[in-house]
Amino acid sequence: MKTQDVKLYAAQQLHRLQALPDNQRRAELAKLRRGIGHAPGDLPELWGSFLLEMPESFQGRSAPSAAEWAVYLALTLYAMHQQGNDRLMNCPGNTLGRAVRQLAERNSAGQDWTEASVLRRFNALATAEEITEISHHLRGMIQLLSAAKDGGIPLDYPQLAADLYELQCTDPRYAQTPANVRLRWGQDLYRDPKPAPDEKEKEN
Predict the structure, then answer these.
(1) Is residue 197 domain-resident?
(2) pLDDT for 98-122, tens place per residue?
(3) Residue 201 forms part of a structural domain
(4) What are phi and psi of 64, to 5 degrees?
């Protein structure tokens, strides 16, 4: 399944980044940040950063493919997110919907988190249709997550790459569609983050 292939490839590239010696990793992240706002392939200095060992089936011919866009955005936005944060900003399981919920709760200062202004920005991202528009709104969201009070809020970047791939999938023959991604974001946003009580606690 191509979505899972995109997710796995993004995870491998992030692992490669994180395994680099400190100085080399910082240089690579700085280079990736320069790619923000550009299309995949625009900057030759970044070719190796996101094309290294990329499966041939991912590669576009006349324009960047959906897979190339997804991986490129995930890696460049991760580089921006990690800047200035000592804690690792790639966190498996912390999906975009969950991360935005955490941000909204932090910003609401004990008030109703569903009224937080960040949700309007999340809605703008969720309703964007073209990949450059999606990347514009997503960049703003990542900046908010990175600068969150009490430390940056991490994100599951391999899952984000998979989401970005599916957001570009308009073929009705495939089960995963943009509508499915948006629904999943909404489910994660409104899912109760507190663990459910066990049966003993329910009885008491």
Answers:
(1) no
(2) 999 999 999 887 788 988 899 999 9
(3) no
(4) -60, 135
- pTM for this entry: 0.89
For residue 122 the two structure tokens come to 């999340």
What is the Cα 103 distance to its own chain's centre? 15
Mean pLDDT along residues 13-27: 94
Reported residue count of the chain is: 204
* Degrees, nearest 5: CA angle 99-2-39: 65
Phi/psi for 129 (5° steps) reads -115, -35
Type of residue numbered 117? S
- Of 189, 199, 158, which is closest to residue 16 (Cα–Cα)? 158
Domain that holds residue 103: 2-191
Closest C-alpha to 77, from 168, 177, 169, 158: 158
Helix 96-108 crosses helix 178-190 at what angle (to 10 degrees)?
40
Q: Which of 124, 131, 169 is nearest to 39 (CA)?
A: 131
- Residue found under tokens 């791939």: 165
**What is d(CA 107, CA 104) in angstroms, rounded to the nearest whole number?**
5
Residue 152 carries which DSSP code? P
